[in-house]
Amino acid sequence: MPKILIIEDEAAIRRVLKKIISEENEAYNVEEAEDGMQGIEMIMKTDYDLVFCDIKMPKMDGVEVLEKTKKIKPEIPIVMISGHGDLETAVNTMRLGAFDYISKPPDLNRLLNTVRNALDRKELVVENKRLKKKVSKSYEMVGESKAISHIKDIIEKVAATDARVLITGPNGTGKELVAHWLHEKSDRSNATMVEVNCAAIPSELIESELFGHVKGSFTGANKDRAGKFEAANGGTIFLDEIGDMSLSAQAKVLRALQENKISRVGSDKDIKVNVRVVAATNKDLKEEISEGRFREDLYHRLAVILIQVPSLNDRREDIPLLVEFFSQKIAEEQGGVKKAFSKEAIQLLQEYDWTGNIRELRNVVERLIILGEKEVSQRDITLFASK
Fold it and tell me: Quick check: is 141 in a domain?
């Protein structure tokens, strides 16, 4: 049931507005406030779907109510009520975030259209927030171990900065989750995060993939093409498995980091880019440097902040939480019922040697849920979880 608040010091105007809105739809729950201060108190206590607010009122005028509401509950659409002499102010309130304004006396059709549009907008904002939370949950970092808590602390401290981060750790430990958390908690979260798996791209194509190319620069280059750095402009680029990148591509990445500009393959034209670089590797880059396979100057550019993601064997205390998380997620994905794991089953999983880390654990949990009984038992582990 939509809740609507009318903040208006003239009782006659409040009655007219309430009558029109209530008669349009009996499901609307319309409440009143006789001044701005009372209106703000009610807004703080109740989640309204729409607020009508007069501009000229004693104690607190409508502009101040608008500004305060946008700070405490920015998702609420606010429609300003203006007298003839307040029209210029009403238009200015649109710049401050007002949804719309109506003039006194209110026109019936205009008022009802405004109500419908504002409620549709509120519903859309709420749905977008719900979807964003759903997306964010896809990259949730699960665990309360000392190692994971330390990583979360680092992310909280550095996410809002543009400091470059190098994430290290074995395959399957969740390095990409750390990268996504860094992006989603940063000021760049509304922009794009572009992921590049450097190990999956042939060495002869990596430069074109990262920096783009111009038509005719090599066989098969039939048209100009932007690279990943351009696609990530204003956002974040995640260079996964950067230890597998060729030395020539490393040189170009170094220049991009030093000068904030790149050039497409086959072109001498510079393109300015504003990109935060997060990199990850399962290799020991210092050893790679000593073997001449990785540039030391690039390493120092990338490793402003170092995050070491532990293996699952080094955070066994997180396994019960991870099993619970994967069980819930798999049930949602497959439309089934979440299965419980017995204490004995959890204990056996904690004793395993997880060479494949988190990725392997998820596969095992899914296998047990599909093949096991209603409650996954020690017997199920013995039958279906052997490696």
Answer: no
CB 376 within 8 A of CB 368: yes
Condensed to tens digits (0 to 9), the pLDDT of residues 209-248 reads 999 999 888 887 888 888 999 999 999 999 999 999 989 8
Residue 23 falls inside a structural domain: yes
Backbone angles phi, psi at 303, to 5 degrees: -90, 50
Number of domains in the chain: 3
Q: Terminus-to-terminus CA distance in the chain, angstroms?
A: 54
Classify each residue of 328-358 as buried b or exposed e, where b means 16 or more C-beta atoms within 10 Å of its C-beta: ebbeeeeeeeebebeeebbebbeebebebbb
Q: What are phi and psi of 250, to 5 degrees?
A: -60, -40
Per-residue pLDDT of 168-197, as tens digits, reads 999 999 999 999 999 988 889 888 899 999
Whether the Cβ atoms of residue 228 and residue 271 lie closer than 8 Å to each other: no
Domain that holds residue 354: 313-384
Supply the pTM of this predicted model. 0.65
Q: Which of 331, 326, 329, 370 is nearest to 346 (CA)?
A: 326
Q: How far apart are CA 281 and CA 168, in angstroms?
A: 5
